[in-house]
C-alpha cells in the first residue's frame, strides 16, 4: 500500500491556512484587550463618605479641531443629602465646581431631580495636523458644596469615545478639589488603521509606477484597461483617505507621509502612459501609411488611358 506523501501545494495551502488562522486569532485578542482597557473605570476621592457627592463622568467625545473634550456628568447626592432616600433628588441646594473654563459650575436645586449635564473641557498641547500621532493633555476635576458648605467628593471616570484613549497621568486631592491629569491620544484601532492606510497608499502608487514603467518601456501604445485602472486608483485613493477614522484635517501628517505622494505618483504615471501612448500610436500609423509614387496612378481612368495609348 502506497504511503501518503503530501505534495508541495498541499503544504503551501496548509501553511497559508495556518497563517490566516493565526492572524484572525491575534486580531480577536487585540480586540478583547482594547475592549477591556476601554471599559476600565477610574475612581478618585472619598468613596465611603456618607454625606457627600458622587460625580459619575464619561468622556463622550474628543474634538481635537475645536480643542475640546466633552464630559457627560451625573451628580448624585449621598447620605443625608438625599431627599427621602431618593438617589437622584438632593435635599439641599448643590453646587459642583468643575475644571472647565467654559462652564465653571453646575447648580442643582433642592427637591428637583438631577439630570445629566454636558461639560466641555479645553485640551492643551498637541496639534491635530500630527494625525495619527497627535497627543493632548487636560485636567478633569470637581469640588462640591451643599447649602454653601464644602462636602466630600468622589469621582468616577470612563471613556466611551472609540477614536481616542485617555491615560491617567496623575491624581490629586487638594482642599476638597479632586482632579485627574489626563493625556489623550488616538486609540489603538485608529493608530493601526492609519498605518494600514499609509501602507496601502504607497503600495498602490508603486504598483501603478511599475505597470506604467513596463507600458512606456515597451511602447505598447494606448493600453486602455491599464489607463482606466490608474485613473480609478487616482480617484479611489481620495475617498479612501476621507474614510480615515477621526476625520483628520487636510494637510495632516497622513497626507504628507503617503496620500499626496501617492496621488502625485499615480497622476504622473497616468500622464506619462497617455503621452507615450499617443506618440507611439501616431508614429505607428505614420509608418503603416502606404507610400505613393509620383508616376503611379490609382484611378481606373488613368490605367485605361495608359492601356489605350499602348494600343495605338
Notes on the protein architecture:
This protein has 312 residues and is α+β, with helices and mostly antiparallel strands. It is 41% helix and 29% strand. The protein has helices spanning 8-38, 188-217, 224-242, 253-288, 300-311; strands at 42-45, 53-63, 68-77, 82-83, 86-90, 94-98, 105-108, 117-122, 135-146, 149-151, 153-159, 164-174, 177-186. Strands 6, 7, 9, 10, 12 and 13 form a six-stranded antiparallel sheet that branches. Strands 1-11-2-3-8 form a five-stranded mixed sheet, with no helix packed on it. A hairpin with a 6-residue loop joins β6 and β7. α2 (188-217) packs parallel to α4. The chain is elongated and about 100 Å long. The termini are far apart. 25% of the residues are buried. InterPro entries: DUF4436.
Low-pLDDT ranges:
298-312
The major beta sheet can be summarized as: 6 strands, antiparallel
Order of helices and strands: HEEEEEEEEEEEEEHHHH
Task: Assign an overall shape.
Answer: elongated
Q: Over the alpha carbons, how many angstroms does the gyration radius reach?
A: 36 Å
How much helicity do the residues have? 40-55%
In round numbers, the mean pLDDT is 85
Number of strands: 13
**What structural class should be given to the helix and strand makeup?**
alpha+beta
Tally of individual helices: 5
The fraction of residues assigned to DSSP E strands is: 25-35%
Distance N to C terminus: 96 Å
Protein name: DUF4436 family protein
Region (Disordered): 285-312
Biased composition (Gly residues): 303-312
Organism: Streptomyces mauvecolor
Amino acid at each position: 500500500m502506497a504511503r501518503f506523501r503530501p505534495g508541495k501545494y498541499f503544504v503551501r495551502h496548509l501553511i497559508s491556512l495556518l497563517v490566516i488562522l493565526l492572524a484572525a486569532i491575534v486580531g480577536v485578542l487585540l480586540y478583547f484587550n482594547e475592549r477591556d482597557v476601554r471599559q476600565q473605570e477610574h475612581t478618585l476621592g472619598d468613596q465611603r463618605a456618607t454625606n457627600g457627592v458622587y460625580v459619575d463622568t464619561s468622556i463622550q467625545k474628543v474634538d481635537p479641531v475645536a480643542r475640546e473634550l466633552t464630559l457627560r456628568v451625573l451628580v448624585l447626592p449621598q447620605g443625608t443629602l438625599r431627599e427621602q432616600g431618593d438617589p437622584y433628588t438632593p435635599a439641599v441646594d448643590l453646587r459642583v465646581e468643575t475644571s472647565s473654563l467654559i462652564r465653571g459650575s453646575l447648580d442643582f436645586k433642592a427637591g428637583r431631580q438631577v439630570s445629566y449635564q454636558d461639560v466641555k473641557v479645553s485640551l492643551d498641547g498637541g496639534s491635530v495636523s500630527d494625525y495619527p500621532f497627535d497627543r493632548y493633555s487636560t485636567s478633569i476635576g470637581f469640588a462640591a458644596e451643599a447649602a454653601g458648605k464644602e462636602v466630600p467628593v468622589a469621582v468616577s471616570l470612563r471613556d466611551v469615545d472609540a477614536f481616542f484613549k485617555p491615560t491617567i497621568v496623575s491624581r490629586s486631592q487638594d482642599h476638597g478639589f479632586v482632579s485627574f491629569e489626563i493625556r489623550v491620544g488616538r486609540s489603538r484601532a485608529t493608530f493601526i488603521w492609519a498605518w494600514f492606510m499609509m501602507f496601502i497608499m504607497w503600495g498602490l502608487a508603486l504598483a501603478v509606477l511599475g505597470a506604467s514603467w513596463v507600458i512606456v518601456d515597451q511602447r505598447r501604445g494606448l493600453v486602455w484597461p491599464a489607463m482606466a485602472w490608474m485613473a480609478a486608483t487616482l480617484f479611489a485613493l481620495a475617498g479612501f483617505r476621507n474614510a480615515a477614522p477621526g476625520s483628520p484635517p487636510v494637510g495632516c501628517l497622513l497626507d504628507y507621509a503617503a496620500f499626496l505622494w501617492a496621488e502625485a505618483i499615480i497622476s504622473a504615471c497616468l500622464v506619462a502612459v497617455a503621452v507615450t501612448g499617443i506618440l507611439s500610436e501616431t508614429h505607428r500609423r505614420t509608418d503603416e501609411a502606404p507610400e505613393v509614387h509620383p508616376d503611379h496612378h490609382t484611378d481606373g481612368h488613368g490605367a485605361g488611358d495608359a492601356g489605350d495609348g499602348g494600343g495605338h
